[in-house]
Each structure stands twice: as structure tokens, then as C-alpha cells.
Amino acid sequence: MTHYSIKELEEISSMKAHTIRIWELRYGLLKPERTDTNIRYYDDSQLKKLLNVCALMSEGMKISKISELNEKQIGEAIDKIINKSTSTDASIETIINQLLIAVTTFDELLFNKVFSTAVVQLGLVETYLKIIYPLLSRLGLMWSKGDVMPAQEHFFSNLIKQKLFVAIDATPMPQNTNQTWLLFLPETESHEIGLLLANYIIRSHGKKVIYLGQNVPYENISKVINSCKLTHAYTFYVKNHSEKNAEQQIGKLLKEYKNLKVCISGKETLIEKITKKHKVVWIKQVQSLLEILK
């Protein structure tokens, strides 16, 4: 079980610490524990309750009314929000909060239920853009703590990758295509979710993909390019790479394979510097990728 300070609750829920304390004192909404040295902390169940309260408030319910609900009633109210249209910002925020609860409490059943509902209503790509990526940003605040959080990161990442692998496997293999894409992450890069989503989008548009995955040495990339007729190579830079190393990798690729369109996504500050020195295609968002696929 993870311990959270009130400041961390504020960062995760986006609700001001001052407001949380007022709810605690006036309505008994949260009940913090204390360490042996008398420092206040909140556990996973308190975080779950706070996120549910925020979701109900975003739907217009008053805090005085929410404070009168028991755990079962809160759960039923949340289900109603999730099962209705996800077209509103409030509904999307509720889904993000529910997935956050599922990750922090290792609740795979809840995760699958909420994720499936979102995909039915939004479609897979929109679910990733509107829900999964914002959730990743919020989880980043939690993972920066350390302690238990690496386990939660692996739990979340593996669930998401499973969903994407299933979706990719369900797309038909292209027969004749004017584009063949090589997708890879360079050495030291292991954050694969963005690359997997690109794999799904490219394949669902009838284009051929050769997918190498994460931490691929340059010599392996070179061998694939030499043995296959490729039109595009696509990679991501997410980690805090050495600017020099990233530029060398891209520069070498462009020099050796002049007819290959090299596309990159990821950390904006790094890619800005690369694009100033090298003729690459910067895919900033999904729409940019869709334009290339047309």
C-alpha cells in the first residue's frame, strides 16, 4: 500500500490541498493516518475516494450530497457516468480517474471494464489520445516518487501493450501497398506505447509495417533496411537522450539511406534541435501521421 501526502493528493487529483483539508474537517470525507513521528498520510483507499468525489463533482453533484453517500452508492453513481456518452470533458475526466484508481490498486478487472467502455464509445485511437495519454502524464507525477510506483508503471504499461497487441493482430495483413514502414526504438529507448499505437494506425490504413520494437542496435536497423524495400522509418525519442547521440543516429540513417523518409516523434525540445540540422519528418500528432498515410 502506498502512502501519499496531501500535496501528492493535490497533484494527482488536481484538487487544491486547501479544499481537501476543508472537506476532511467539515464532512469527514477523508481520514488520514499518522506515522510514528505524527506525520499525516493517505493510503490507496483514500486516494480512490478522493478521485471518485472529484468525478461526481465534475458532473455537478454538490460536496454536501456526496458526503452523505456510502461506498456502494458512490460506485453506482460512477458507473452511471462511465456508461453514458464520453463526449463531455467531465465524462472523460471520470474515466481517467477510474483508470488511475485501477492502476494504483492493481485492479485489472476495473481497468478492463473502463477501458472497454471507452473504446466502444470513442474508438481505439481517440481513447488513446483523449484518455490514455493524459493518464500517462498524471501517472508521471506519481512515478516520480519511486518506492512502489515502478510496479504500478509496469502493471499499467503491460495492460496497455496487451490491448494494442490484440488490436494490431486483428488488422488484416496488407496485400499490395505503396508504403512499407520500419518501426523501431533506438538503444536505451524502451517506452513502446507510442510506437505500438503508430503500428496499429499504419496497419489499419492498409500499409505494411516491419516492427522491431524497443532497444534496437543501429546495425540491426541497417540490416533490415538493406534487405527490405522500405519507404519510411519511424522512431521515438522519449528519454533524456544526449542531443549529440540522437543527432548522430539520425544523421547516419539519412546519410546511408537517402531515399528513405525518416520520421520521428517524442521529446519536443530534442526533436526541434534535430529538425534544424537534418531533413526529417516530425510527426507531432496523430493527424500528421494520417496525412502521410493518405
Assign a percent range to the helix content.
Answer: 55-70%
Total of domains:
2
Strand content: 5-15%
The major beta sheet can be summarized as:
5 strands, parallel
- From N to C, what is the helix and strand string? HHEEHHHHHHHEHEHEHEHEH
Gyration radius over CA? 22 Å
Provide the low-confidence segments as ranges: none
Average pLDDT score: 86
Secondary structure tally, helices: 14
Strand arrangement across the biggest beta sheet: 4-3-5-6-7
Structural class by sheet pairing and helices: alpha/beta
Distance between the termini: 48 Å
Number of strands: 7
Taken from the alpha-carbon principal axes, the silhouette is elongated
Characterization of the model:
- The chain is 61% helix and 12% strand.
- It has 294 residues and is of the alpha/beta class.
- The chain has 2 domains: 6-168, no CATH class; 174-293, Cobalamin-binding domain (Rossmann fold), CATH 3.40.50.280.
- Strands 4-3-5-6-7 form a 5-stranded parallel sheet, sandwiched between helices. The chain has a two-stranded antiparallel sheet with strand order 1-2.
- The longest helix has 22 residues, at 149-170.
- The protein is elongated, with a radius of gyration of 22 Å.
Compact summary:
The protein has 294 residues and is α/β, with parallel strands linked by helices.
List keywords for this structure.
294 residues, alpha/beta, Rossmann fold, two-stranded antiparallel sheet, 14 helices, 61% helix
